[in-house]
Amino acid sequence: MLRLMQAVADSTPLLVAGTIEVVLLTAIFQILSHRLTITTGVEGGVPDGWFGAPADRLYGYLEALGPDGRRAYASINLMDFFPMMPSYAIVLGAWLVRSCRSAGVTTARLAWIFPLVAVFDVVESSVFGYANARYPDRLDPSLLSLASVANGLKWVCLTVGLVSLAALFVRNSFGARKRHRL
């Protein structure tokens, strides 16, 4: 995975195309989620966007969606697996590799933050999708707790990764200005 992120980071056309893909996929995901909210009247967005997902809230959400809404959520959940997860893990990881290189920072550990986000996303989305498919039957509470923890860790790691990218961008921008002035 690290080699793939490095290869994308080394190719400006791949990095730009991948970035456009991730932006478009994110927009599509948000549009579908918003459309689900409009058509079902269920507020709060899809569980993937929550920070933590207690069982009562998840089952209340699935109940409120109704059969058509649950089918629509299943499609959104499937899109999250592919192409969304691999795309953002590779592209954001590649941006991190490229930014670290420009700043002279080693990428060996930091580059894994976005694939780690995807791992937590897989756990979360698998359980949420399974709960949706099995509804009205309820899953084991420990499985739902695992999904809720994975959901929270996904958002924490994503935040750490994005803040790291922003900090590297600022560092690289000011470093470039200083070098340019000399």
Average residue-wise pLDDT: 93
Q: What is the strand content? A: under 5%
Helix content: over 70%
Instruction: Work out the radius of gyration.
Output: 19 Å
Query: Describe the biggest sheet?
Result: none
Please trace the helix and strand order, writing H or E for each element. Answer: HHHHH
Low-confidence segments, given as residue ranges, are none
**Strands, count:** 0
Describe the 3D structure.
With 182 residues, the protein is mostly helical. The chain has one domain. 82% of the residues lie in helices and 0% in strands. The protein is built from five helices and no strands. Helix 1 crosses helix 3 and helix 4 (113-134) runs antiparallel to helix 5 (141-181). The chain is elongated and about 55 Å long.
In short:
It contains five helices and no strands. By secondary structure, it is mainly α.
Topology:
Layout: H1 2-10, H2 12-40, H3 55-103, H4 113-134, H5 141-181
Give short descriptive properties of this protein.
182 residues, mainly alpha, 5 helices
